[in-house]
Amino acid sequence: PTPVFDPHPPLEDLYVTTSGLLPLTIGEPIDTNPGGAMVFLEVDSCYSEEMGITEGDLDRWIAHYSLGMHADGGEMRPFAVEAPPGVPLWRIDILTEDLTTPEGIGIGSTLVELQAAYPDLVAGTSGMVSQVWWIAGADGYVVFETQDNSDGLLPSATEPEVILMRVIVMGADQDFAAANSGNVAGACF
Asked: Whole-model pTM?
């Protein structure tokens, strides 16, 4: 029998996998996605006369979970998704340390913990402030970025930690550094 998922499970029941943030599944359109209820469409989400964003693809899928409010009055969300109109969900960015892999790896985990949890971890690009790593599965990748200490910015006793996580669908480029770049799933620019 096919397992039945809660289409909007509590945040504490979600795990980051190479297939998505289940039941929110990469490679599936939002309207038929088993976890489609975990996001909602915010019409004109990117509309901003001040920034000159007034036409084009202005709608965005937003996490149907809140972690409270930012100082600027906006809601803090635990994850962000990239699923333009007519395109299956291809990227999920993890934005909180509350979401981890089944092995307990998440934002704030050390590089030593990451490497111990995943002996087949692949080292990718070294960005300006981070090192990219990933694990692969049948559907996609879980990509981790750890704080890069090649220039000695971290105190000598500090172990590099995971600072970003994302799930990328198989076939998309997973080897890119996004730390401190504004490159976030669903960004307006």
From this structure: 0.89
Per-residue pLDDT of 104-141, as tens digits, reads 999 999 999 999 999 999 999 887 789 999 999 999 99
Nearest CA-CA partner of 143 in 37, 26, 35, 24 = 26
Could you give the CA distance from residue 87 to residue 167 in angstroms, rounded to a whole number?
16
CA distance 117 to 101: 10
Short-list 137, 20, 132, CA closest to 83: 20
Residue 162 one-letter amino acid: V
Task: Say how many C-beta atoms besides its own lie within 10 A of residue 172's C-beta.
Answer: 14
CA distance 15 to 11: 9
**Of 154, 157, 152, 132, which is closest to residue 142 (Cα–Cα)?**
132
Question: Parallel, antiparallel, or unpaired: how do β-strands 91-94 and 79-82 relate?
Answer: antiparallel
